[in-house]
Amino acid sequence: MKASKPQNVKENNLMFLKTVIKENGPLSQREIAKQSGLSIVTINKLVTWLLERDEIKEAKKLLTTGGRRAVSYEYNAEFKLLLAIQLIEKNHKFVFLFHVTDLFGEIVSEEEISGSSLSWAGFKEYVSSFLDKFPKIGGIMLGIPGVEIHGELKILDFPPLLNLNVRKELQEVFHLPVGIENDINTAVRGYADWLPVKHEILVGIYYPDDFPPGASILINGKIFKGRNGLAGEIKHLPLSVDWEMGLLDKIEFNKNSQEVIQTIISMYDPDKIIIYTNERIVSQEELIPIKENLAEVFPYIELPEIASSVTFSQDYLKGLIIQGIELIESAE
């Protein structure tokens, strides 16, 4: 095995130490040594370096160790900030929800902006205004009801951003790491984070009010996108509904959702399927006949847990923040 270069060892130790403090702080140097296995000498050097970079800070409350009070250290969640932007359907209109969060995911500031009056140039101006107001922003994470294919937003119901290489343009203008993710993908990622038990395969299906549905497949914590990022675009399934002719309030929801779920079970055999829509469309009780029909189709297996949820917006934001923080940390 090839030995790591000294610089790589230092970087790896720094990342490890920062994670220990982030997840368990505040900690004294002795406690850090106990949890990390690193020597006090090494920890002293790394702590000094992290303090100089402002990535950790001295905790306000000193730890009592039985003798004198020891200085303790905690993660500085405002070392960098995240700008998380949701493009979301609200009251039959598109709006942009701008959120500034710290690296613990706590919201520092947020603002809602109407999408109908926002051009691409106007969108960049809003981003610029947030960066001016919060100079510690270290990354931008954009959630969209569409798909980025080969760098361009090829599937999107919001025309001002359609066919643009949004990621590249934002990076060139603002010189920050930029992430773009489909809304249902981020929602399922956020939903999975709430669960006490992690599923090997979790599938989410989203039925918005005014647009065709989409789905997301999370396998062992990672979003499965397929070769072109098209995985989950269930509007293309050859089922008994024409999305060009009618939207959610005009289709036979129970029939369509059963067809979609049956397809997903056949292809992915998931542990759980979560259906996002509003209570007007489906409730847990209305899922009972769907489950009974599916049990007849698949009599030889234990069906996945199937549930409905109205928490799409909350899960969407949580997942977006999780991915945005990962984006910032991976760029350090």
What fraction strand?
Answer: 25-35%
Using only C-alpha atoms, the radius of gyration works out to 23 Å
* Range of helix content: 25-40%
Shape: globular
User: Total number of helical segments?
Assistant: 9
Strand order in space, largest sheet: 8-7-6-9-12
What's the mean pLDDT score?
Answer: 86
* Low-confidence blocks of residues: 1-5
Notes on the protein architecture:
The chain is an alpha/beta fold. The protein is 36% helix and 26% strand. The chain contains 9 helices and 17 strands. It has a 5-stranded mixed sheet, sandwiched between helices. It has a 5-stranded mixed sheet with strand order 15-14-13-16-17, sandwiched between helices. Helix 1 (6-24) packs across helix 3, helix 2 (29-36) crosses helix 3 (40-52) and helix 6 packs across helix 9 (312-331). The radius of gyration is 23 Å and the shape is globular. 32% of the residues are buried. Mean pLDDT is 86; it is low at 1-5.
Detail the topology: elements first, then pairings:
Layout: H1 6-24, E1 27-28, H2 29-36, H3 40-52, E2 56-58, E3 63-64, E4 69-70, E5 72-75, E6 81-90, E7 93-101, E8 107-114, H4 120-133, E9 137-144, E10 146-149, E11 152-156, H5 166-174, E12 178-182, H6 183-194, E13 201-206, E14 214-219, E15 222-224, H7 253-268, E16 272-276, H8 288-297, E17 305-309, H9 312-331
Parallel strand pairs: 6-9, 9-12, 13-16, 16-17
Antiparallel strand pairs: 1-5, 2-5, 3-4, 6-7, 7-8, 10-11, 13-14, 14-15
Helix pairs in contact: 1-3, 2-3, 6-9, 7-8
